[in-house]
Design goal:
- The chain has about 260 residues and is α/β, with parallel strands linked by helices.
- About 40% of the residues lie in helices and about 15% in strands.
- An 8-stranded parallel β-sheet has the order 1-2-3-4-5-6-7-8.
- Strand 3, helix 3 and strand 4 form a beta-alpha-beta unit.
- It is globular, with a radius of gyration of 17 Å.
- The mean pLDDT is about 95.
């Protein structure tokens, strides 16, 4: 099992991060991908895969953090990101994307421009994109209809857009990841989307420390909860959990270009 999206560097893990990681391996995980949210985290994150190859990282700027960054520095940040990606060590570009609630602090035009920069870097460096999209799917679709596609692909992180929107992203070749909400009692849209996604495009995540699955909802999530999410996905798909776990693991390793070592290592 590979957790394709876990903010293990978040401050909420400061008190017990080593124990959280140990619980993840004990739960059967053999890979965790940590997406950056801002430029100040890039260098520290790049140290992690050097210490443990089971932990891989993505580098990017989360749209929710753009309001905290001066707009005039966007170009400089993207240039620095380009230089870091050129050195190697990152398995993906992101987390990046579009965020509706953040428009008041970072106008849509700026979010789109920064996302275009991330997509260009993904194309240049041959890396997949960890895509965040919250309440701005029409704008993202408009962008992706005109933007050159990264050869390594795009992963729609914690997808919640429903089946109809999913069909556009499927046509464009996207992968999809699901988190804790697929286990929630009121889940409808993510389950509908889950059922139309091609099996080879499906992976799983916890989005820790957020979106904890049942029975931990409302608490801090952690990567060791990934089996609960896979169980919820398997139930919705009507297939055995172990079959889904193996397939999503293989999909993740293929998407991230074998960045994660095989389980036997």
């Amino acid at each position: 099992m590979i957790d394709t999206h876990c903010h293990l560097d978040a401050s909420r893990f400061e008190p017990d991060r080593p124990e959280v990681v140990a619980r993840a391996w004990a739960a059967g995980l053999h890979g965790i991908l940590i997406p950056a949210v801002g430029p100040e985290t890039w260098e520290p994150l790049l140290e992690l895969p050097r210490q443990d190859a089971r932990i891989q990282v993505g580098l990017g700027i989360h749209p929710q953090f753009l309001p905290d960054l001066p707009p005039e520095d966007d170009g400089l940040h993207l240039e620095r990101l380009d230089a870091l990606l050129a050195k190697g060590g990152a398995a993906a570009v992101g987390e990046c994307g579009l965020d509706g609630p953040s428009v008041t602090g970072a106008p849509l035009e700026r979010q789109v421009a920064v996302l275009r920069g991330h997509l260009a870097l993904a194309r240049k460096h041959g890396l997949p994109v960890l895509m965040h999209c919250h309440r701005l799917h029409p704008a993202l679709i408009d962008l992706l209809k005109t933007e050159a596609w990264p050869d390594a692909g795009i992963l729609m992180h914690s997808y919640s857009g429903g089946a109809e929107l999913a069909r556009f992203y499927i046509q464009k070749g996207c992968h999809f990841s699901f988190a804790g909400p697929v286990t929630w009692a009121e889940a409808r849209k993510p389950l509908d989307a889950l059922r139309v996604i091609p099996p080879e495009r499906l992976v799983a995540e916890t989005d820790s420390p957020d979106q904890a699955p049942t029975p931990f909802r409302g608490q801090r999530s952690e990567p060791g909860y990934l089996p609960h999410i896979l169980a919820g996905m398997a139930q919705a798909l009507g297939e055995p959990v172990d079959v889904l776990a193996q397939r999503t693991t293989e999909n993740a390793r293929r998407l991230f270009r074998e960045a994660f070592p095989p389980p036997s290592l």
